[in-house]
Amino acid sequence: MPRDHSREQPQWLLARHSALTARQLLRAYGLLCLFSLVIAAAFALRGLWYIPVFSFAELILVAAALLHYLRHARDYEHIVLRDGELIIEQVSGGHCRRHHFSPWRTRIAVPQWPRQLIHINDICDVTRHVAVGVFATPERRRQVAQELGALLPPYLGP
Predict the structure, then answer these.
(1) Span 37-52, average pLDDT
(2) Which residues contact 150 (CB under 8 A, 6 or more apart)?
(3) Confidence at residue 33, expressed as pLDDT on a 0 to 100 scale
(4) What SS3 state is found at 15?
(5) What pTM was computed for the model?
(6) How far apart are CA 110 and CA 146, in angstroms?
(7) Mean pLDDT of 23-40
(8) What is the rounded CA–CA span in Å between residue 35 and residue 51?
(9) What is the pLDDT of residues 10-20, one digit of tens each?
(10) What b/e readout covers 79-99, taking b as 16+ CB neighbours within 10 angstroms?
(11) Using an 8 Å Cβ cutoff, are 148 and 108 in contact?
């Protein structure tokens, strides 16, 4: 059966690329703890008690950094043009923000420089705007902005 392309909803997912899964990260941290504690125990047996103190402090700081990494490992931005509405969902650190725009009143600013983000603005309400593309490469940001801009209807005025 042929697909009905007119009913498909264009969408873009811009996600953070994580090098390690949670399980891999836990294993790496476990090996680090084992290695560090073995060395700290060897120094403690020789009477140098301040080495284990610094070792524990190091492990606590590394654990805090890894928890921060894990918290943001699944961050993403999702852009959907659905049912006459542009929906932008931004997830960062488990917090989700949704922005709804009317496609007829929305303009897309295509990034001109490598570090510039995609700016989505409501023409009728200057306070309503959002920047997306934090997790995308400059080429991908430019491509998404151009595709999205091509799908939006022209602004007809008030």
Answers:
(1) 95
(2) none
(3) 96
(4) strand
(5) 0.76
(6) 7
(7) 95
(8) 13
(9) 999 999 888 88
(10) bebeeeebbbebbbeeeeeeb
(11) yes
What is the C-alpha separation between 20 and 38, in angstroms, rounded?
Answer: 25
**CB proximity list for 24: less than 8 A, separation 6 or greater:** none
The position carrying tokens 């005025």 is: 157
User: Measured between alpha carbons, how far is 140 from 2 in angstroms, rounded to an integer?
Assistant: 30
DSSP letter assigned to residue 4: -
Reply yes or no on whether the pLDDT at 105 is more than 80: yes
Evaluate whether 53 touches 64 at the Cβ level (below 8 Å). Answer: no
Residue among 123, 118, 122 nearest 145 (CA): 118
What is the CB-side half-sphere exposure of residue 20 using CA atoms within 13 A? 13
Q: Which two tokens stand for residue 16?
A: 């953070």
pLDDT digit string, tens, across residues 74-93? 899 999 998 889 999 999 98
Query: Distance of CA 56 to CAs 2, 39, 40, 48, 64, Å?
Result: 62, 11, 9, 14, 12
Q: Side chain identity at 108, as an amino acid letter? A: I
- pLDDT for residue 7: 59
118-148 b/e (C-beta count within 10 Å ≥ 16 → b): bbbbbeeeeebebbbbebbeeeebbebbeeb
Mean pLDDT, residues 132-155? 90
Residue 83 — left, alpha, or beta (φ > 0 → left; ψ -120 to 50 → alpha)? left
